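Ticket #4471: structure output looks truncated?

Reporter: J.K.
Steps to reproduce: submitted the chain below (373 residues) through the standard prediction queue, then opened the result file.
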Amino acid sequence: MKMESRCSCWIVGSLLLVDLLIFPGDAIAAEKRGATTTKVGAPLPVPDPLVFVQYTEPKERAFSLLIPKGWRTEGGVFYVDPNTAGGAANSTGPKVSFSVRKDDPGTVMLQWLPDYYYIDMRFSPAGQMGLFPPGSRYNGMVVAPCPQAKDFLLQIVFPQVRPRAQSLEVVAVKPMPGVAQQFAQAAPLPGFQYDAAMVTVSYLENGVRLQEQMFTVIENMGQAGAGLWQNRQTVFARAPIDEFKGWAQVGSMIYYSVKINPQWLHAVIQATDQRNQTVLRTQKTVQQLDSEIVAHRQRINAEIRHDGYLTLTGQEDYTNPYTGETEIRPDGWKYHWQNASGEVIVSNNGNYDPNHDVYVNRTDFKRSAVRPR
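Returned output as attached by the reporter:
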């Protein structure tokens, strides 16, 4: 089994565990069907109709997803240089830092953050001798005690990604033991421990009061992994506080539309497996076989697409009218249209037909129907 091919590819993780309810499942479930206002008399934050277009990651064509027309993207696949990082632990495979935002400041934004390995040196002789204090680096990893998921989000990640945030308020902390259990069931070795949490905060940035939901899973490999731990599937989603629920459906549509390029994934797994040999000997950690990645994805996807899950998260299975594939989408819109290029338009207006919309300028849209039960 190989180390980095199990955990460096954020997209694989996104598809393996799509029930982490980012942006946000709870808000989606709380929304009434078709409701898009945040309070009586407030303007609708989400346009109707809303046009989604296909976007492909530009650097390696690693993945594609749907984004609202006119929105911005930033980042993509990148690699850590072991020469500048001080070691190879975080350099054996690709990482992704990627965001989709409504405007340049990102007042409405969905953001994926890269997975990184850290190391807790308290159990090693060198660490006990004080040779690698917290904050130092060992083999390309930051030395730090393994935190809980909520503390990792609030104390480590949030200050890094939101340095201009002011007047921070923690609105809610939600442990997610079910998610942690799913990771534990797929752990490559006995003794690996997992903690998952979603944290909701509000803060001021550039004079705007924003609300943000943050999610991560912390994988603690303990003594079996020589003190290694890492964050996995770290995702942030934010919007102005009065518009947050209104944008929740849009964020969910973006999040669940991610698709991996299988040719890219196959090449990455092969290249990563070759680079992993040195790190495996150094860190004595293990990884899943390529076939286990595929099998786990299929098993989890099957589990989450049952009626109870869809009801809980305010979503529905729709059938792509061109490919026949089943696609999970939030059910806050009554009408879903899709064309041959994969673009999607959603609306609650029963009289709207995108084939007659001069702004869209396409005539090949077909209605997406709810998958028959």
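Triage note (M.O.): checked the attachment and the full token line is present. The chain has eleven helices and 19 strands.
Status: closed, working as intended.
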